[in-house]
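Side project, low priority. Logging it here so it doesn't get lost.
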Amino acid sequence: MAAAANMVEVAALVGDTARATMLAALMGGQSLTATELAFLARVSRSTASEHLAKLVNARLLTVISRRRFRYYRIASPLVARMLESIKAVAAIEVPPRHQPRSAQDDALRFARTCYDHLAGRLGVAIADALIARNFVVLSEDGGMVTNLGRRFLSDFGVDLASELRSNRIFCRACLDWSERRHHIAGLVGAQLLRRCFDLDWLARDRDTRAVKVTPAGRTGLRDTFGLDPETLTAAAPKTRDHAAPVAARARR
């Protein structure tokens, strides 16, 4: 009974519109203040503080004080996976409500942060490219990096060896709610995204989870993964899966 009661409590917390909006904003992996989250949720600062206190008490969020500011973030990868799974179920299993598409919607569908890894059409395309070259193997049960993949990631500047002592899941498939296919999550996904930011291939969009490909990124993604971001702007078919990924040919 205790487990059921806890599930009801978590569902009630996530089910509130204002709290859900704040949680979704924090799924970008950044830490935000109560003022920023109040603005995004369209509630008062005091109301936002009440919501945030409940989320912190339930261990869905953590808060860090820096001088006179308090920054909130998702408490753990486990919480992030739960929220992304809810988003995927809502997008795939629940009959959609009619809503006109906006430029922001299109930007999120193209490329966005999913907690600490890359999602959207670009994230799925990178997964396809790595799978097609036998660098990564993904399944519903998890994922693995091959020996070829480890060499590739090392050449790309991703140091996975120093992170092996982490409690993070090493590599796993994450169902993309907009593409309805898998992108790469876990430590490997996080390190890939971090490297793309370090190289200035991607830039965050302000006040949203969307990321943009920079001019350097267009060249880098083409040369490293064989991807042309311009060809990814059109809607991708939703009938493909990673059992038969589209091969992405890298240019060396």
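Brief comment: Residues 77-92 form the longest helix (16 residues).
Revisit when time allows.
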